[in-house]
Amino acid sequence: MEFIDNLPSMDLMRSEKMTFVQLIIPVESAHRAVSYLGELGLLQFKDLNADKSPFQRTFVNQVKRCGEMSRKIRFFKDQISKAGVSSPSHPSLQPDIELEELEVQLAEHETELIEMNFNSEKLRQSYNELLEFKIVLQKAGGFLDSSKSHTVGEETELSENVHSNNNYSDTASLLEQELQAGPPSHSGVRFVSGIICKSKVLRFERMLFRATRGNMLFNQTPAGEDIMDPISSEWVEKTVFVVFFSGEQARTKILKICEAFGANCYPVPEDMTKQRQISREVLARLSELEATLDAGLRHRNKALSSIGLQLTRWMNLVRREKAVYDTLNMLNFDVTKKCLVGEGWCPIFAKAQIQETLQRATFDSNSQVGIIFHVMDSIESPPTYFRTNCFTSAYQEIVDAYGVASYQEANPAVYTVITFPFLFAVMFGDWGHGICLLLGALVLIAHERKLGSQKLGSFMEMLFGGRYVLLLMSMFSIYCGLIYNEFFSVPFHIFGGSAYKCRDATCSDAYTVGLVKYQDPYPFGVDPSWRGSRSELPFLNSLKMKMSILLGVAQMNLGIILSYFNARFFGSSLDIRHQFVPQMIFLNSLFGYLSLLIVVKWCTGSQADLYHVMIYMFLSPTDDLGENQLFWGQRPLQIILLLSALVAVPWMLFPKPFILRKQHLERFQGRTYGILGTSEADLEVEPDSARQYHEEFNFSEVFVHQMIHSIEFVLGAVSNTASYLRLWALSLAHSELSTVFYEKVLLLAWGYDNIIIRLIGLAVFAFATAFILLMMETLSAFLHALRLHWVEFQNKFYHGDGYKFRPFSFASLIDDED
Predict the structure, then answer these.
(1) DSSP 558-580
(2) How far apart are CA 322 and CA 314, in angstroms?
(3) DSSP assignment of 205-238, as one string?
(4) If you count Cβ atoms within 10 Å of the first and of the last residue's Cβ in the chain, which end, N or C, has fewer?
(5) Helices and strands, counts by H and E, the chain
(6) Helix axes 431-446 and 467-484, enclosed angle (nearest 10)
(7) What pLDDT was estimated at residue 112?
(8) DSSP helix/strand/coil, 347
(9) Quick one: which of 552, 554, 470, 483 has its CA closest to 735?
(10) What residues contact residue 530 under an 8 Å CB cut-off, 6+ apart?
(11) pLDDT in tens, 714-741
(12) Cα separation of 385 and 16, whole Å?
């Protein structure tokens, strides 16, 4: 035990020792002190104003100002994105700027940009109107020319029809009546010309027809060019229309319908001379507006480019300032209103750094009063903080996803670094597939710096974060694949020749004729001659099933041993005597003994039936084992182990609750009326200080909890051991899938003497290998390995009811979006 106590402590085994500290900061140096602590990132502040709403806190106005500045920066970012102005990846260094000065600059830039946008929108609207007018003049002028030529050609025919038909005035169309009457008059045919969105034309025409009861002529033609909408900045396809009608009432209806459908109406003179004159004026105005718009756009893009140079710096400054004021809102004013009082947690190793940082803040702010930093006691459980690096952080995240470790609790991530990728490889073992995964992991690691500075999608971000997990998974997969002797399901004679050969010359069919052993066993892994033999599946099933049980029992024993180190670390001898010892006895009396039988059977080559041995160990422990006896003294040993397992169950259940009850009664016996504390230390003690805190003892609750824990362990010992058989099942499934794709796809296609069929077979095999074996099977094995660690391993010792250490740090704000 002294040897264990003298071992050096492991950083990742236990969380960092934390201490509860109090800061008393003068008001004039509060902002600088909190800023410096944010740069250090080793102090987690406690919210002393949790009972107040955000609007009741001291620095609410500063937080609002920062929020408003963030809104303006987001507005600039949106405008830069819409304009397509490229921001430099490495902005030029600019001198530091104060928050008040930045606020003024942002307001000026926003006002200027809003004014430019407004002017640009107005100019664009005028330009669009002139462009539409030009198009309407061109298209509607064509309609009017065609109608005039049509009039001259048919005038004679119309007059003859009028004289031969007395009722013509009742049945003639509006256009024909106008033509008969001669020149247009106030009551004759008129027209309205304009332009409308193409998507609305059909509904627009129907509405006009119904409103005028069919007394109108509707002509339309495509505009020929798209027009930009000044509001949405999208190109819209439009159609030019001309509506011929008669009467003032119809004109009023048509104009109202045009307004309702958003159609723009433009006056087109019938005189061709006037049309040409107006067209020339419109074209001149359009060229002027184009020049004005281009100049305005260049000026706006130049302003946005100058903003983009400093946008990142402004964003970081505002984000930092907002974080500082949010943290200051967690502090309380003291009685004199001249100092801010803050409390929080920090690692013990960081105390010197924090004190040095606070002294620097006092000096830089020219404060006459220094910042007081002192350690306090607290009844609260400290946060959990593990110092990780890029290699261990992914494994720590796997453990934390189940639950954050309690303070100073043994950390499963220390062992997960090795056991997790190894159990994955047991299910995934194929050194061909392992090489593929290894290449992917090496690519991610080689581009680590480049990918780390980019924004990745959710899938790629997850893959990049677990690059070192993928690296070890691939390396262990190659190792297990060499043991299974599988390269895309094909065995190879890597470590020498096979130990088996054919019995005679007719032994070519390994499915019907057995092999004989003629030399020493294959030096490493499975002998390649097992491949294709009639006993291949029984042999590999037996091997992998027994191996799964051995690995499972070993890992569960490791979990129970870690519960011993937890109990020893926290000084709980009760847990060692009445929890660790009976659990070890129960698990190893049954499944430890099964593991022993497996190893003995492998070593001796016995034909004993282990199923029969384990079943009759419970049903008939005194019966003779017969041919199933593996070693001398097996039967009495089985009886002793069975009795030990039966004794271990009440040992786990009963002693601990009664001993806790006895200790509680002894601790508080005769203390119903305690002596009043009158010392100054008792009077001045604070609510969150080191005053000893005792929870109320409830015997029934403790007993029920212990009973649930005992039943869970006993049943879990059986179910968890069976759960490790998933190692065998998934390994078998992976191997069989690889074999099917190899034999039924690749070899089948290669049997044809056709290059196209071979290429198709190769493509199907590559697709199946990449997407089914390398993606789906990898995910499946990953999830099963995750379950084995979370449930079967960690439930033996891991409580996982702590909370993470989240210090105030500017580094954690980098990826946050306001």
Answers:
(1) HHHHHHHHHHHHTT-HHHIIIII
(2) 12
(3) HHHHHHHTTT--EEEEEE-SS-EE-TTT--EE-E
(4) N
(5) 29, 13
(6) 160
(7) 92
(8) strand
(9) 483
(10) 491, 536, 539, 540
(11) 999 999 999 999 999 999 999 999 999 9
(12) 6
Q: Which helix (H) or strand (E) holds 4?
A: helix 2-5
Residue 217 pairs in a beta bridge with 244
- The rounded percent of the chain whose pLDDT value lies above 70 is 86
DSSP SS3 for 601: helix
* Tokens, residue 802: 């702590």
In whole angstroms, give the CA distance from residue 265 to residue 253.
Answer: 13
Cβ-based neighbour number of residue 434 at 10 Å: 24
The residues with which 264 forms a beta bridge, in sequence order, are: 195
Residue 586 has which token pair?
Answer: 């129960």
Residue type, 415: Y
The full length of the chain comes to 818
Cα angle 676, 680, 684 (rounded to 5 degrees) comes to 95
Taking residue 352's Cβ as centre, other Cβ atoms within 10 Å add up to 9
Q: What is the pLDDT of residues 793-803, one digit of tens each?
A: 999 999 989 99
**Angle, CA 658 vertex, CA 654 and CA 661 arms, to 5°:** 155
3-state secondary structure of 19: strand
Contacts of residues 211-214 at CB distance under 8 Å and 24 or more positions apart, as own/partner, are 211/250, 211/253, 211/254, 211/257, 212/245, 212/250, 212/253, 212/254
Backbone phi and psi for residue 569, each to the nearest 5 degrees, phi listed first: -65, -40
- In single-letter form, the type of residue at position 208 comes to L
Of 717, 703, 708, 615, the closest CA to residue 656 belongs to 703
Nearest to 781 by CA among 471, 301, 277, 429: 429
Cβ atoms within 10 A of the Cβ of 282, count? Answer: 20
Question: Pairing mode, if any, of strands 339-347 and 227-228?
Answer: unpaired
Handedness of CA 776, 778, 784, 787 (dihedral sign): negative
- Please tell me whether residue 802 adopts helix, strand or coil conformation: coil
For the segment 120-148, what is each residue's pLDDT rounded down to a tens digit? 888 888 888 888 888 888 887 776 665 55
Q: Which two tokens stand for residue 521?
A: 């066993």
Which of 68, 69, 62, 66 has the alpha carbon at shortest distance from 329?
Answer: 62
- pLDDT (tens digit, 9 = 90+) per residue, 53-96? 888 888 899 999 999 999 999 999 998 888 887 766 555 556 66
CA dihedral over 748, 753, 757, 758, signed as positive or negative: positive
For residues 618 and 552, the answer to whether their CB atoms sit within 8 Å is no
Q: What is the mean pLDDT of residues 312-333?
A: 91
| Cα–Cα separations (whole angstroms), residue 96 to 35, 72, 110, 310, 313 | 15, 19, 21, 11, 9
Q: How many C-beta atoms surround the C-beta of residue 799 within 10 A? A: 14
* Residue 532 in tokens: 């294709």
Beta-ladder partners of 19: 346
316 is written with which tokens?
């970081």
CA-closest candidate to residue 807, choices 375, 391, 359, 382: 382
CB 318 within 8 A of CB 65: no
Measured over all CA atoms, what is the biggest interatomic distance in the chain, rounded to whole angstroms? 135
Note the pLDDT of residue 689: 36
The rounded distance, in Å, linking the Cα atoms of 774 and 436 is: 8
Determine the Cα–Cα distance for residues 680 and 658; give it in Å rounded to an integer. Answer: 39
Which has the closest alpha carbon to 385: 808, 806, 817, 810?
Answer: 806
Is 208 buried (19+), middle (13-18) or exposed (0-12) by CB count in 10 A?
buried
344/357 Cα distance (integer angstroms): 16
Query: Residue-wise over 578-605: b if at least 16 C-beta within 10 A, else e?
Result: bbbbbbbbbbbbbbbbbbbbbeebeeee
Integer Cα distance of 76 and 309 in angstroms? 12
SS3 281: helix
- Structural element, H or E, at residue 190: strand 189-197
